[in-house]
Prior knowledge:
Blueprint: H1 3-14, H2 20-28, H3 32-41, H4 45-57, E1 67-71, E2 77-81, E3 87-92, E4 108-110, E5 113-120, H5 128-142
Antiparallel strand pairs: 1-2, 2-3, 3-5, 4-5
Amino acid sequence: MTRDEFISNAVALMGSATGWQAGLARRMGIEPRTIRRAVKDGPSDNLAAALLALMSETSPQAVHAEWIVGTGDDHREYLIHTTRPRFTCLVVLPGDDYDLANDDGIKYGSGDTTLAGFVWLDRVPDNLSMLMERACDALERIE
């Protein structure tokens, strides 16, 4: 993506030619100087990809469910959160062969169920415990 394409896409996404740099930096969770540098020299490949991903998130989505539970091709059960902050995680039940001791990432337990193996598509939220409670509630409702 060229410098001019970056600016044009960013202004279109933010809806204004004034204040778009600071707003875009906040929305992307990055330092404003990164945006200023992209305006001056052109965006890095990573920044261009992040802008395009952000633009695709604003388009209508076919999935209307906030939570999806399914079985992966590894025969494990997964929970998927489709709204921001988006993530997938493994649903670990008693007797599963998943080694929780070797998982150094986020783990959240509720009753006999533990959520682990998180893959975050967005930044991990500050109110993580509230989101994890909602995840466990959704899992109970679905199953």
